[in-house]
Specification:
The complex is a heterodimer of chains A (556) and B (459). Chain A has 556 residues and is an alpha+beta fold. Chain A contains 14 helices and 24 strands. In chain A, the strands form 6 sheets. Chain A has a 7-stranded mixed sheet, sandwiched between helices. In chain A, strands 1, 2, 3, 4, 5 and 6 form a 6-stranded mixed sheet that branches. In chain A, helix 2 packs across helix 3. The longest helix of chain A has 16 residues. Chain B has 18 helices and 13 strands. In chain B, strands 8-7-13-9-10 form a 5-stranded mixed sheet, with no helix packed on it. In chain B, strand 2, helix 7 and strand 3 form a beta-alpha-beta unit. In chain B, helix 15 runs antiparallel to helix 16 and helix 15 packs parallel to helix 17. The chains are: A alpha+beta (556), B alpha/beta (459). Chains A and B meet through helix 2 of A and helix 14 and helix 15 of B.
C-alpha cells in the first residue's frame, strides 16, 4: 500500500478546509462550494492560464522570525495576501494557503474579463447553436452588464470556416481559450489546430495544408465554451434547450463510451459523450457519435410482416409471432439455426439463448464485426456486447466460429429454418439465393436490407435509442442503455418480441418488465449475482470473472 | 556605411560604450584583441565559476533590459549540482520604443558582448547559449555571426576554450518581428519554435523551467557586457560607480524634443533629469517649454514637467528624509524613478515639449501596444486595442463624455491581471497620461458635443 495522500489546510473565503495534496486551487474552491468561473481551464487538459476568468486572491502564511507561520487569535495561520490576483487553474493547494473568491478585487477581475470577452464578440446568440449551453451566456448572468461601453467597431474575422468534414468554425465567436488546440495536441495526438495573427486579430485555424479530420474532431465542439466550433451535423437543427438528454452508451464498438442522447419529439438530434473516467473520460469518437442517423430513417420497419407466396404482407403482432412459432415447430432441431448479434443487449441475448434452448438446436452463433482500432477509444471489435454474448452462451470464445458451417448447412439444405436477429446474413457469408430457399426465415431488424427482403416473418424491432437494457464492454464493464425515444409505428423492443415467440413455442408464462428479465439473469448467471438494472447505475459496474473478448485497447 | 562619429559628452563615463563611435574602431576581432579584448575572459577562466557569480552579486548590477532585477540574484537561482543542461540567452530583442542602445553594441562592438557572454556562461555553467536578436536587426545578426566565427577561430568559443576544458557554443537566433519576443518566456517559446506566448509564472520561471524545460538565464545585451567589466575591475569596484543599489553605468537613449538626442553612457544616478535634458542633450528647441518626460521606454509612466514629486531618501544612519522636488531634480536611477511613480525601464528617455498633444502621444503609444499584444490572454488582447480605438476616436473628433474614465477603467482592468508584464506596459501609459493630462482628454471629448458614452445609450 502506498502512503495516503496528505491533507493540506486551506482557507477559502475565511473558512478552513482540508484537501488532498495535488488538488488544483480551482477544484478546491469548487469542492468548497465556491465555484470559480473559467473558460480555458479544462480538467483533462494542460492549464495555459490564458482566459484570466479564474483570477482569485491568494496568500501564504506569514512567517515569523523563527520561520514558522504566525498564528492569529483563532490559532490559524495569518495570511500574507499577494497584492496581484492569481489564476486558480494552474496551481495546486499548499499548506496554509489562503484564497478569496468573493472579494471586490476578484469580482472586478471577473467583470473585467467578461467585458473584454464580449467587446469583440458578435453577440449573435439568437442564431448561435451554442445558445443555451454557452459559458459566455452562463457567466454573463453573474458578471455581465446590461449595456456595453464599447463604442468602437468590432474586429472582423473569418466566419463559417470548414475546419474539417465535421466541424464548422466561427472565428468571431472564438474567445481564444485554446481548449480545442490543446485537445487535438494532448489527447488526440494530432497537432492540427493553432492560432494565427496577433493580438485582438488572433484567430483559430488549421495549420496550412491540414484539415481537422481526426476521428475525435467533434470533441473540440464539446469543449468549446462558446459557439465558435459547431458540429456541422447538428448545427441549426435544434435549439439545445428543447433537447431531452438521455444517459446511455455508444453501441458502435466494444468500448461502450458513455453518452447523452439528445432527442426531441421522438427524433434523435445528437449524441454527446458523458464523462466516465473508467471508460471514455469525457470523450468519444466521431464515428460512434454520428452513427445514429439510421434511427431517424424514414425507411424504418414499422409493421410486422408475413410472407404470402412472393409477397411480404403487413400483419398483426399476434399473427406474426404465431406464424413464426408455427414455422419453427415444423422443423427438427438440427434443421434450425439462430444467428444472434453482438449488438443485442444482455436481456435480448438472454431470451435469444432461451429460444435456442427451446428449439434445442446447436446451430447458433453471433456475427463478429471488426474494424481498425486506434490507441484512444475506438476498439477493433465493433460489436458493443460480444462479452455479453459469450457470457450468456450465444457464442464461443471465438465469435462467429460456427457461421460458415451454418451457412454451408443452409446452402446444402440441411438447415431449413433460420432466425436472424439484428443481422443482415447476406453480409455474413450467407448467399441471398440460399436464404430464399429456406422453409422458415424469421428476421428481426430495424431497417430493410437483403435479408429482411427474404424473410418469411419480419419482426420490426427497436434501435439502441429506443430500448433499455445492459451490455458488457470489452473491459468487462456492465453498462446500461436507456430509452430516449419511442420506436416508430408498431415496432417493438426486441426482448418482448423474443419473449412472445418463446411463450408461443413453449406455452410458458413470460416476464413483463425488463427489470424482471435482469432479475432472471441475476439468478442464473453468477457474474450478475446481486445486481439489478438500477444497481448498474449511470456509470456501470465492473464485473469480476468476465474476460475481455480481445486485447483491450487503451482508453483515455 | 560611413559612420557618423560623435564625441562623447564630457559627463559621460564610457565603459560599455567605450568603443562605440571610436575613431578607427572596427568589428574585427583583431581590432578588439589589439585593444585588450578577451583578456577578461582569460582572467575569468582562471577563476572558479562561483567566484564570478560572487563578484557579479557584489557589483550590485541590475538588469539593463527593463525590469532592473539584480543579475547576481538571478544567476543564484540556478541550483548547485543541477543535472539538467543550463542555457544562457542574450536578449537582443531590443524593441521598447525609445530604446536604441543594444543595437550599437551589436553593430560596433560585438566581441565585447561575446566576451561578456562567454564569461557569464562559464559562471553559470552553461554550455549552450543563444543570442535572440530581433528580426528588424538583420545587419546586426550578420555582424554577430561573423564575430562568433572569428571567436571560434581564436578558440574563445567551441570545445576546450583556451585549454581549460570549458566547452561552449553560441548561436544567433533571429526573431520575426514581434515585441513580445523580448519577454523572456515568450523569447524561450520562440527559440523552441512556437508562438512566443509568454509562460505562466509559476511554474515556468526560466531559472527552473526555461528553455526545453531546463534552467535558463536570460540577460540583456548591456547587462552581459557589464559582466566583462565586473570581472575586470572586481565587483566591489564596480559597485562604487553610480549610487548604492543603483550601481554601474547605464546607456540612456534620449529622444524627442531635445537639441541633441542620442545615447549617453552615464553613471547610474550620476545626473538628474534636468542635467540630462539641459546640460547633456543641449536643452529644448528654442522657445519651447518642457511638458513631459517618459523616462524608461514607452511603457514607463509619463512624468509631468510642472508636477512636484515627494521623494523619500534613506540616510546612512537608517532614517529617511522626505523632500519635494521638481522633475529636473529627479535622479536618473532605478530607485529615484520608481519613487516618483515611474521607472528607469530600458533607459529610453522620451522628452516632450509644450508643442506636443498628449492625446496624440498616447494614441501613438497605444497603436504600438495594440499592434504588439500577442493575444494570448484576454485583458491585454482585448484591452490594448480597445484603448487604441478610443484614443484614435478622440483624435478623429468623435470623442464622448466618459471616454477618459473608460480609458482608465480599461487600463486598470489590464494591469496586474495578465500572464506577463505586457499588461502593465500597455496599461501604464494610459493610466498615467489620462491621470496627468486629463484636461486634454476632456477637451477632445467635448469637441464632439453630441456624443455620450453612458452605458444605456449603447446596446
Amino acid at each position: 500500500m502506498s502512503d495516503p495522500v496528505p491533507l493540506l489546510n486551506v482557507q477559502i473565503d475565511g473558512v478552513w478546509y482540508q484537501f488532498p495534496k495535488g488538488t488544483r486551487v480551482i477544484e478546491a474552491c469548487a469542492q468548497a462550494g465556491k465555484f470559480v468561473p473559467r473558460y480555458c481551464y479544462h480538467p483533462k487538459l494542460s492549464s495555459p492560464g490564458n482566459c484570466r476568468m479564474c483570477l482569485i486572491e491568494m496568500g501564504m502564511p506569514r512567517m515569523g522570525p523563527d520561520r514558522k507561520p504566525e498564528l492569529g487569535p483563532d490559532g490559524k495561520p495569518v495570511i500574507n495576501w499577494i497584492p496581484r490576483p492569481q489564476i486558480s487553474c494552474a496551481q495546486d493547494v499548499a499548506e496554509g494557503m489562503g484564497v478569496r473568491t468573493d472579494s471586490q478585487l476578484v469580482q472586478d477581475c471577473r467583470h473585467g474579463v467578461m467585458e473584454f470577452l464580449l467587446i469583440n464578440h458578435p453577440l449573435d446568440c439568437p442564431i448561435c447553436d451554442q445558445a443555451g449551453e454557452c459559458e459566455l451566456q452562463e457567466f454573463s448572468v453573474q458578471y455581465g452588464t446590461g449595456g456595453s461601453r464599447f463604442r468602437e467597431e468590432k474586429v472582423k474575422k473569418p466566419k463559417h470556416v470548414h475546419l474539417g468534414p465535421r466541424v464548422t468554425l466561427d472565428d468571431e465567436r472564438c474567445i481564444l481559450c485554446s481548449r480545442c488546440i490543446r485537445f487535438m495536441k494532448e489527447v488526440a495526438h494530432d497537432d492540427v489546430l493553432g492560432f494565427a495573427s496577433r493580438g485582438s486579430h488572433s484567430y483559430l485555424t488549421a495549420h496550412p495544408g491540414r484539415v481537422l479530420d481526426s476521428n475525435y474532431s467533434l470533441n473540440t465542439v464539446d469543449i468549446c465554451p462558446v459557439g465558435a466550433l459547431t458540429s456541422t451535423d447538428f448545427r441549426f437543427k435544434m435549439r439545445v434547450w428543447f433537447l431531452k438528454e438521455t444517459k446511455s452508451i455508444c453501441t458502435s464498438c466494444a468500448t461502450g463510451c458513455n453518452t447523452l442522447i439528445g432527442s426531441r419529439q421522438n427524433v434523435l438530434y445528437r449524441q454527446t459523450p458523458r464523462e466516465n473516467n473508467d471508460v471514455n473520460s469525457p470523450w468519444m469518437c466521431d464515428y460512434g457519435r454520428l452513427n445514429f442517423h439510421d434511427v431517424n430513417s424514414t425507411d424504418r420497419l414499422t409493421e410486422p410482416q408475413i410472407r404470402h407466396l412472393s409477397n411480404l404482407e403487413t400483419a398483426s403482432w399476434t399473427a406474426a409471432i404465431s406464424r413464426a412459432a408455427e414455422d419453427l415447430k415444423r422443423f427438427q432441431p438440427t434443421e434450425i439455426a439462430v444467428i444472434a448479434s453482438g449488438r443485442m443487449t444482455n436481456e435480448e441475448l438472454w431470451f435469444a439463448k432461451k429460444l435456442v434452448d427451446s428449439v434445442k438446436t446447436s446451430n447458433y452463433d453471433i456475427v463478429p464485426r471488426t474494424g481498425p482500432a486506434d490507441d484512444l477509444l475506438l476498439n477493433s471489435i465493433r460489436n458493443p456486447n460480444t462479452n455479453g454474448a459469450q457470457l450468456l452462451g450465444l457464442c464461443s470464445d471465438q465469435p462467429g466460429a460456427k457461421l460458415q458451417q451454418i451457412a454451408d448447412g443452409v446452402s446444402q439444405g440441411h438447415i431449413k429454418a433460420v432466425v436472424a436477429l439484428q443481422e443482415d446474413l447476406t453480409a455474413a457469408g450467407f448467399k441471398a439465393t440460399d436464404l430464399e430457399r429456406l422453409g422458415a426465415f424469421i428476421v428481426m431488424d430495424i431497417l430493410p436490407n437483403e435479408t429482411t427482403k427474404r424473410a418469411t416473418t419480419l419482426l420490426p424491432s427497436a434501435s439502441f435509442a429506443e430500448k433499455r437494457g445492459s451490455m458488457i464492454n470489452v473491459k468487462g464493464r456492465l453498462q446500461r442503455l436507456n430509452r430516449a425515444i419511442q420506436s416508430p409505428g408498431n415496432a417493438r423492443e426486441d426482448w418482448e418480441i423474443l419473449r412472445d415467440l418463446i411463450q408461443h413455442l413453449t406455452g410458458a408464462n413470460g416476464v413483463y418488465l425488463i427489470e424482471d428479465v435482469f432479475k432472471q439473469m441475476a439468478e442464473n448467471v453468477p457474474q450478475f449475482q446481486g445486481l439489478s438494472l438500477s444497481k448498474i447505475g449511470d456509470l456501470g459496474v465492473s464485473l469480476e470473472g468476465v474476460v475481455a473478448a480481445a486485447p483491450v485497447t487503451a482508453s483515455a | 556605411m560611413p559612420a557618423i562619429l560623435r564625441t562623447p559628452h564630457p559627463r559621460e563615463r564610457r565603459i560599455v560604450f567605450k568603443n562605440v563611435d571610436r575613431e578607427g574602431w572596427t568589428t574585427d576581432i583583431d581590432c578588439y584583441l589589439k585593444d585588450g579584448g578577451y583578456e577578461e575572459l582569460k582572467k575569468a577562466l582562471k577563476m572558479q565559476p562561483q567566484e564570478i557569480v560572487s563578484e557579479v552579486k557584489a557589483s550590485g548590477v541590475r538588469g539593463r533590459g527593463g525590469a532592473g532585477f539584480p543579475t547576481g540574484a538571478k544567476w543564484g537561482f540556478i541550483r548547485p549540482g543541477e543535472t539538467k543542461p543550463i542555457y544562457l540567452i542574450c536578449n537582443a530583442d531590443e524593441a521598447e520604443p525609445g530604446t536604441f542602445k543594444d543595437r550599437y553594441i551589436i553593430h560596433q562592438d560585438p566581441h565585447q558582448l561575446l566576451e561578456g557572454m562567454i564569461i557569464s556562461c562559464y559562471a553559470v555553467n552553461a554550455r549552450l547559449a543563444y543570442i535572440y536578436i530581433r528580426g528588424e536587426f538583420p545587419v546586426g545578426a550578420k555582424i554577430l555571426e561573423r564575430a562568433i566565427q572569428e571567436a571560434k577561430e581564436h578558440g574563445f568559443i567551441g570545445k576546450n576554450i583556451l585549454g581549460t576544458g570549458f566547452d561552449l557554443e553560441i548561436y544567433v537566433h533571429r526573431g520575426a518581428g514581434a515585441y513580445i519576443c523580448g519577454e523572456e518566456t515568450g523569447l524561450i517559446e520562440s527559440i523552441e519554435g512556437k508562438r512566443p506566448y509568454p509562460r505562466i509564472k509559476p511554474p515556468y520561471f526560466p531559472a527552473a523551467l526555461g528553455l526545453y524545460m531546463s534552467p535558463t538565464i536570460v540577460n540583456n545585451v548591456e547587462t552581459l557586457c557589464d559582466v566583462k567589466h565586473i570581472v575586470k575591475m572586481g565587483g566591489a569596484e564596480f559597485a562604487k560607480i553610480g549610487r548604492p543599489n543603483n550601481t554601474g553605468t547605464r546607456i540612456l537613449c534620449v529622444s524627442g524634443d531635445v537639441q541633441k538626442p542620442g545615447y549617453y553612457e552615464l553613471e547610474v544616478g550620476g545626473v538628474t533629469m534636468g542635467e540630462l535634458i539641459y546640460d547633456i542633450c543641449g536643452g529644448l528647441r528654442p522657445g519651447r517649454k518642457l511638458k513631459a518626460v517618459i523616462p524608461g521606454g514607452s511603457s514607463a509612466k509619463v512624468l509631468r514637467a510642472d508636477e512636484r514629486y515627494k521623494i523619500k531618501t534613506k540616510q546612512p544612519d537608517g532614517t529617511t528624509t522626505e523632500a519635494e522636488i521638481g522633475i529636473e531634480d529627479i535622479r536618473m536611477d532605478f530607485d529615484s524613478l520608481a519613487a516618483v511613480g515611474s521607472m528607469a525601464g530600458s533607459g529610453g528617455v522620451i522628452v516632450m515639449d509644450d508643442s506636443r498633444d498628449m492625446v496624440w502621444a498616447l494614441n501613438n503609444i497605444n497603436q504600438f501596444y495594440g499592434h504588439e499584444s500577442c493575444g494570448q490572454c484576454t485583458p491585454c488582447r482585448e484591452g490594448s486595442l480597445w484603448m487604441q480605438k478610443i484614443t484614435t476616436r478622440l483624435l478623429d473628433g468623435a470623442g464622448a463624455d466618459g471616454d477618459a474614465d473608460i480609458l482608465v477603467s480599461v487600463a486598470d482592468r489590464i494591469a496586474g491581471r495578465t500572464i506577463c508584464a505586457f499588461g502593465e506596459a500597455c496599461a501604464w501609459p494610459t493610466q498615467s497620461f489620462v491621470a496627468k493630462f486629463r484636461d486634454e482628454f476632456l477637451a477632445y471629448a467635448s469637441k464632439n458635443g453630441n456624443a455620450s458614452s453612458k452605458p444605456e445609450d449603447k446596446h
